[in-house]
Amino acid sequence: MTNKIMLIITENCNMNCVYCYEHKKNNSTMPFEVSVSIVESHLQQIKQGDKWTVCFFGGEPFLNFSLIERIDEYIQKQHPVHYKTLEYSLITNGTVFNSKIKNGSSIIKI
Ligand code: SF4
Q: Which residues of 66-86 are buried (b: 16+ CB within 10 A; e: fewer)?
């Protein structure tokens, strides 16, 4: 079993690459409740102490950074033991990453 889950948190993107895999860009975002239910389902399958990864994907996931922060806050509060072994990854085009995101978030480490 993989200890990695991928959350497609937005279908929106600020770019229009010709090779893009996201053919139906739109303003849809993953509801918080859906992301939490995926996390909860995954956590039922892993043991405490196991390393696990949540990967944020889109579209451009930084366009929905508020959801990333909500998910982080939720896991930190509801699953403090699992939180210690959690790593995040994020697939981004890098164009909307800014100092507000970098400096305002405790989860960004570059
Ligand atoms: S940055 Fe990624 S999601 Fe956005 S248009 Fe390009 S390939 Fe598609």
A: ebbeebbebbeeeeeebeeeb
CB 5 within 8 A of CB 39: yes
Give the Cα separation of 92 and 60 in Å (integer).
6
Boundaries of every domain in the chain? 29-96
What does the pLDDT look like over 29-55, one tens digit per residue?
Answer: 999 999 999 999 999 999 999 999 999
Rounded CA gap, 102 and 110, in Å? 9
Maximal CA-CA distance, the chain:
43
Distance from residue 101's CA to the centre of ligand 1 (Å): 20
Q: How far is the CA of 41 from the centre of ligand 1 (A)?
A: 29
